[in-house]
Amino acid sequence: MQETATVNIWDPLVRLLHWGLAASFLVAYLSEDDLLTLHSFAGYTLLGLIAARLVWGLIGSRHARFREFVTPPAQALAYLGDALRLRARRYLGHNPAGGAMVVALLLCLSLTGLSGMVLLGAAEFSGPLAEALRGLPPGWIDPLEETHEFLANLSLLLVVLHVGGVALASLQHRENLVRAMFTGNKRRLVG
Q1: H/E/C letters for each residue in the chain?
Q2: Residue 28 in contact with residue 43, Cβ under 8 Å?
């Protein structure tokens, strides 16, 4: 195949939401117990960005829409097998494994943020759920905290797997996918 010009794949909102989610999660994860106000603000920001990404996944540009990259699990697993054998097909937008990772990350990060809101309301009597959780027995605090921490660590594991997948695809297809998520552009190949 012959390499030609680049094509714009990731619109500015997709890129802003992607890096905003990454930064919000990083701040929330690193500030966990010590800086509750910063941690909570990062968590609320994360949830707001996820809400925006969900809307943009329905009405956004072509490669931002979920229908363009969410595939059945069997297709994502088949792609993963091909990728591990270093023979995966190149996609302009998300590949099937990347699409599955987007869904997994959005779901896990949402649950992490929501469990944090519940924990904040129950343990600190703060936040939008404080009144609804005011009468919760104290025995619920530890399980809520453990659930929130488990989900945060699971989110971190997914982030690590995501970065690994990006590195593998970048090497396999000789393409800097990190740069593409900053510029929005990927190279176009012509047969």
Answers
A1: CEEEEEEECCCHHHHHHHHHHHHHHHHHHHHCCCCHHHHHHHHHHHHHHHHHHHHHHHHCCHHHCHHHHCCCHHHHHHHHHHHHCCCCCCCCCCCHHHHHHHHHHHHHHHHHHHHHHHHHHHHHCCCCCHHHHCCCCHHHHHHHHHHHHHHHHHHHHHHHHHHHHHHHHHHHCCCCHHHHHHHCEEEEEEC
A2: yes
Type of residue numbered 162: H
The CA distance from 111 to 113, in Å, is: 5
> Model-level pTM?
0.92
Radius of gyration of the chain (CA): 19
Residues of the chain with pLDDT under 70: 1-4, 189-191
Pairwise CA distance, residues 82 & 169, whole Å: 11
